[in-house]
Amino acid sequence: MHFQLLDPPTGDVVALDDVKVDLRIDTDDFDGEISAWIAAAVERLQSETRRQLLTATWLLTLDRFPRQAIPIWKAPITAIEAIEYIDPAGDLQELDQDAWLVSLRDEPRLIVPAANRHWPATATQPDAVRITCVAGYGDTDDVPALAKGIIKLMVREHFSGCELDLEPLLNQLRWTNHGEMS
Fold first, then answer.
1. What residue ranges of the chain have pLDDT lower than 70?
2. 93 phi and psi angles, rounded to 5 deg
3. Which of 99, 103, 42 is nearest to 71 (CA)?
4. Secondary structure (3-state) at 48
């Protein structure tokens, strides 16, 4: 299972000026350094929580269909745009949307065959299954305040050199559903 970013997000999760106010910095001398810390904090938060903060399009590839469910380890999933596969003859096929369902109660989201359906056979090759999905809360205004607060705390941690216990906050974000598919 491999994720590849197809369409990266645009915008900033938190604004540089907001972080500078939070750090009580009123000079531009550290802007480059703070911007790098913000980017690192966003990357860390997304990695540790398996959440996509700003909307982005991802390609998930698998070598074959699993027996049942396909977990999508990016949240919140807002759309599954396509499920494609290479059939045993080597031709690219797209599954009709009525051939699969997305479980809305599970985290990670699970894609399963529709009732009385099975996943089709695929060619024996790497990346024979390709799932294009959209994940993210939306734009900056849609990102939960908790995520923005954690990012600011991570930057403060870098700036102050004091290690903070962010695990309870990260867990809260991991297990809270915001803006998922409905």
1. 175-182
2. -125, 155
3. 103
4. helix
Pairing of strands 92-94, 100-103: unpaired
User: How much is the pTM?
Assistant: 0.83
pLDDT tens per residue across span 45-86: 999 999 999 999 999 999 999 998 999 988 899 999 999 999
| pLDDT reported for residue 182 | 43
Helix axes 167-174, 31-49, angle to 10 degrees: 60
Annotate 74-86 with b (16+ C-beta within 10 A) or e (fewer): bbbbbebeebbbb
Start and end residues for every CATH 1.10.3230 domain found in the chain: 7-53+139-174
Cα maximum dimension of the chain: 64
SS3 3: strand
Sign of CA dihedral 166, 168, 170, 172: negative
Identify which of 70, 177, 49, 52 has the alpha carbon closest to the alpha carbon of residue 131: 70
CATH architecture of the domain formed by 7-53+139-174 = Orthogonal Bundle (1.10)
Cα–Cα distance for residue pair 119/111, rounded to 1 Å: 11
